[in-house]
């Protein structure tokens, strides 16, 4: 079980172990160029490729991308169906390359609303990369942080009905063990492109002590250099996890 940032002090390194990204700005990138919004999503897939490769080379162990939120179903039907087609294409075309790069693919979210063909492709891609351990790439699809906490609560109580009769016994670990990314450490660095400064129901439990980095760049323009700028900013953060700066200095001097 991964270390909880509210229960213990997780180790920190110069390169974040887990990076979580909201890939925002595809639509605006396209509109600026008088292209349909969907062209921005297609371009966004190229940025995904660049960032996966760059993270692998820099030693990031976990990369989690918010590809489709529980709320994105509210978008125009044609945009939703283009996004679904892009997932299918990416799963069909990219899995060999991911395998060569030692990437293990996980898709996290409520799969039940996806077409059976997409569900099958997801299961196959996950199985085919299951032996890899260099970089864990998680694609959050039909994912929402509140959905995750609710499904974890239900799973926890189903596994241990006694907890409902004695709720005082419930601790963080009971619940966290059932979150959809229970196997991963909490993100060290969160990046959101596209200029908005909000979490948008992404990993809301796990972001408790994550460093939050916002950039105005649109996702299709994001690549290795922009990732390095985010890492440079991260390196200069003082991660206190509730302690004071003086405590950190004293610890370092000892
Ligand atoms: C946000 O931009 C982006 C999305 C909702 C979709 C992200 C999807 C991809 C990058 C492509 C598919 C990904 C994979 C992993 C195959 P927006 O449309 O909200 O942009 P806007 O704020 O400018 O309108």
pLDDT averaged residue by residue: 93
Taken from the alpha-carbon principal axes, the silhouette is: globular
What is the percent of helical residues?
40-55%
Strand content: 5-15%
Tell me the distance between the termini.
29 Å
- H/E order of the elements? EHHEHEHEHHHEEHH
Largest sheet: 6 strands, parallel
Protein name: Isoprenyl transferase
Cofactor: Mg(2+)
Organism: Bordetella genomosp. 2
Pfam family, one: Prenyltransf
Can you put this structure into words, describing what you see?
- It is an enzyme of class 2 (transferase).
- One of its GO terms (cellular component) is cytosol.
- Catalyzes the condensation of isopentenyl diphosphate (IPP) with allylic pyrophosphates generating different type of terpenoids.
- The radius of gyration is 19 Å and the shape is globular.
- It is built from 9 helices and 6 strands; from the N terminus they run βααβαβαβαααββαα.
- The chain has 254 residues and is of the alpha/beta class.
- α4 links the parallel β3 (103-108) and β4 (135-143).
- The protein has one domain: Decaprenyl diphosphate synthase-like (Undecaprenyl pyrophosphate synthetase, 3-Layer(aba) Sandwich).
- The structure holds farnesyl diphosphate.
- Farnesyl diphosphate (FPP) is lined by residues 23-28, 41, 44-45, 48, 65, 67, 72, 83, 86-87, 90, 139, 194, 219.
